[in-house]
Amino acid sequence: MQFSKLILAAMAGLCCITAARAQGADPIVVMQTTRGQIAIRVYRSMAPRTAWNFLDLVSRGFYNGLTFHRIETWCIQGGDPNGNGSGDFVDPQTGRARYLDLEVTPRLHHNAAGVVAMARSGNPNSASCQFYITKSPVPQLDMQYAIFGGVVDGLNVVRSIGRGDRIISAQIVEGGGGGPAAPQQSSAPRRGSGTSASNAGTPTDSGF
């Protein structure tokens, strides 16, 4: 009985993902979490450098096994190798942390649940590997944080994620090839401790 339910859920998810593919050439990343599956359309055409970074980390298996360390009423946040909000991606070839210059566009907004964007410290150019997914609109973050994707299936899973839930695996299921060259590394400092901000939607050095 339970097995049949899992099969039906997987089939429903694949239908949603197939519909998302039809929208264009943007890649789809599927995250299997301890609460279920989340499918993310990655906006490679509108946020090419930030999208490249995320897709590269997915391809490396970087996110596999990492936790969602921050849970708010309006977002979940994960992708930190340290599990506490302080971690960055360190390129094993160079031994240096990779940071991204802030990439924003007026075409993308924090206008709904399911917006996927890069977390960062107070320095706008300090995003590395941590990301957040909104559970409600947070327009005050527009043009301050790099939006690079949107949830196309599994928003119910996003809302059910609790602190300590994990990303079991993440993989590109469509359109992962090509894309822009690797972004240049920034000299931005590391983020803070990862302690939740006191006001929902108000990022601080330690919040994102």
Give structural notes.
About 20% of the residues lie in helices and about 20% in strands. It has about 210 residues and is α+β, with helices and mostly antiparallel strands. The chain has one domain: Cyclophilin-like (Cyclophilin). It has an eight-stranded antiparallel sheet. A hairpin with a 3-residue loop joins strand 3 (about 70) and strand 4. The longest helix has 20 residues, at about 1-20. It is globular and about 40 Å long. The model is unreliable at about 1-25 and about 185-205 (pLDDT under 50).
SSE blueprint and pairings:
Blueprint: H1 2-21, E1 28-33, E2 36-42, H2 48-60, E3 68-71, E4 75-78, E5 115-118, E6 131-134, E7 147-153, H3 155-160, E8 167-174
Antiparallel strand pairs: 1-2, 1-8, 2-7, 3-4, 4-6, 5-6, 5-7
- CATH level 3 topology: Cyclophilin
List the strand order in the largest sheet.
3-4-6-5-7-2-1-8
Could you describe the largest sheet, including whether it forms a barrel?
A: 8 strands, antiparallel
Q: What fraction, in percent, of the residue positions are helical? A: 10-25%
What's the CATH superfamily, by name? Answer: Cyclophilin-like
Write down the overall mean pLDDT. Answer: 82
Distance between the termini: 41 Å
Order of helical and strand elements: HEEHEEEEEHE
Low-confidence stretches: 1-23, 186-207
Q: Count all strands and give the number.
A: 8
**Shape estimate:** globular
Number of helices: 3
Q: Return the structural class.
A: alpha+beta
CATH class equals: Mainly Beta
Strand fraction band? 15-25%
Radius of gyration: 16 Å
Indicate how many domains the architecture comprises: 1
CATH architecture: Beta Barrel
